[in-house]
Design a protein that fits this description.
rod-shaped, about 90 residues, about 0% strand
């Protein structure tokens, strides 16, 4: 009879310990998942900011190239007009 009581007490203690351990493991797993999700989000934000900065630099480079190209075309056209005017004066 006494062994049955100890068996029941052992089973109750074992079940309680199982619930506590399960709760601890579940909480730990949830915390790790939340931490990993936070890390992924922060990495994505940093990557997006890097891509945005690269796009801004590329856009500025393109604008500078176009500005220089346009300025060169204007200067080339002015030289051409000046040469034609000089040729007309000589004629």
């Amino acid at each position: 009879m006494e062994s049955i009581i100890w068996l029941i007490v052992g089973a109750v203690v074992g079940i309680a310990a199982g619930f506590v351990i399960n709760k601890f493991v579940a909480k730990s797993t949830a915390q790790r998942a939340a931490d990993e999700a936070h890390t992924v989000v922060e990495d994505a934000k940093r990557q997006a900011e890097t891509l945005r900065r690269e796009a801004v630099v590329e856009a500025k480079d393109e604008a500078l190239r176009l500005r220089q190209e346009a300025q060169g075309a204007l200067e080339g056209g002015a030289r051409c007009r000046a040469a034609r005017q000089s040729a007309r004066r000589v004629s």
